[in-house]
Amino acid sequence: MSVAPVIGKSYDRPASLDLPRSPRPRSNSNFEKYAWLFMRFSGLLLIVLVFGHMFIMLMIDGGVQRLNFAFVAGRWASPFWQIWDLSMLWLAQLHGGNGLRTVIDDYSRKDSTRFWLKTALVVSMILVLVTGTYVIFTFDPNITG
Which sequence ranges are marked TM in the entry (predicted)? Predict the structure, then answer.
């Protein structure tokens, strides 16, 4: 039994597949595996931290009407809440930065573009982390106008 030829198609050789989009070479490093695991675990922990934060801020004891400078000053007087908010800041920044790093790797074609985008990402992440950490630990409730 023979197969009738289709116009414009040749069945003599198998169809070839295009190369993957990502031009970067694969390394033997486990960095991507650990980055993938970090995204899963940090995402779960962020859900707990963020929903806990929202529940406390919006639902308990009068809701959003009580949120003011004095509330924040009282909250950040406790090391527990400083660590809670610091954990939320650091995990959200690292989680989002890791996700954006993956997007940059997936969609930037040129190595130079990838380098500059990742450089801008790292610089902005460091600025946000340093500034946020500084504010949380040096917050002065005794502000004078």
Answer: 34-56, 115-137
